[in-house]
């Protein structure tokens, strides 16, 4: 990939059922994280577990936090916000850019349209809408 002048690759860095090993390529990467709210680990712990596993072999630049599938989140909006914010703060403490991967419906259901995720990138999925061109 580097031969073809790609400077970054986008891949999933953490999934609740991920047991595979990553192959180091020397590229800068942006990763997305699908957190597990049923885990005994905090959001920050899940982030750090992922980041520590990646940073020895990869130049991680950005972490994208997947905030979708409301049925997999807590019914408590405040717990969801605390969980999301703990990941954001842990990522920033490690010098990473943070992005949120979501859509309007899921964000509303999970966070009640929380606006406290300041200075984050937004990858806005429009999968719930019909788009006509």
UniProtKB/TrEMBL annotation:
SUPFAM superfamilies assigned to the protein according to its UniProt record, in alphabetical order: (Trans)glycosidases
Domain of life where this protein originates: Eukaryota
Protein name from the UniProt record: Uncharacterized protein
One Gene Ontology term from the biological process aspect of the record: innate immune response
InterPro entries in the cross-refs: GH, GH25_Enzymes
Alphabetized Gene3D superfamilies for the sequence: Glycosidases (3.20.20.80)
Taxonomy of the source species: Eukaryota, Metazoa, Ecdysozoa, Nematoda, Chromadorea
